[in-house]
């Protein structure tokens, strides 16, 4: 338990240092929810340290604290998503539908993975809020990961991102993901030693995430890298590929009709018709 306490102190200390780093680099206006999230956790922790753990006041303070942190975590994910969408000026309202679809997929994946018993208390919106509150880390990590998969592999977008946004995206996914993984291990085992080990690993990885944020978040990281322009030969090759693809798609109905006509002339086909 002493190791866990030391890691928790280091966790809070790393958060405070990261806040000063972001303020020094002038990134408060770019990431206000992220800074608020980093400030709320140490303040809430220090407040609860002064309260008796076995008292009703501590229970009520912990409930309010976790609810506030849920709001801030959702704000961090939404803020990061908006920063990602800034790289695509024409995305418009599509970003809202895309975000809703990604969160829904991530939420369903979390529910099917953890399989909570919601039969007795299935009611809207209480159960929905409870599920989001309980699986917030898993849903946010899944949504951020699905955003990367959708943009990179489904739409095949090679748009360069601002270094701060790209680093924040990767580190936040790791930060939320390790919390969900630790919770899954605790849920599956329920052994005190495994719980202690998973908490130590989770705190260690999250401290490493704070160190990564501290080293990568810079004022210069808000500048967009130069876009790699295609050479004339590459542009010509892409246009030729597009023409061939369009020609193939256009000729498909004719080929299908021709194959159907050939099948009608086969004696076996005629026998089946009879």
List keywords for this structure.
274 residues, mainly alpha, 2 domains, 10 helices, 77% helix, 0% strand
Question: What report would you give on this structure?
Answer:
This protein is mainly alpha-helical and 274 residues long. It folds into 2 domains: 221 residues; 42 residues. It is 77% helix and 0% strand. The protein has 10 helices and no strands. Helix 1 runs antiparallel to helix 2, helix 2 runs antiparallel to helix 3 and helix 3 crosses helix 7. It starts with a helix and ends with a helix. The mean pLDDT is 79.
Quick structural gist:
It contains ten helices and no strands.
How much of the sequence lies in strands comes to under 5%
Whole-number mean pLDDT: 79
Distance between the termini: 82 Å
What can be said about the biggest beta sheet?
none
Return the structural class.
mainly alpha
Radius of gyration: 26 Å
Tell me the overall shape.
Answer: elongated
Domain count: the total is 2
Number of DSSP E strands: 0
Work out the helicity level.
Answer: over 70%
Query: With helices defined by DSSP (H or I, 4 residues minimum), what is the helix count?
Result: 10
Low-confidence stretches: none
Oligomer: single chain
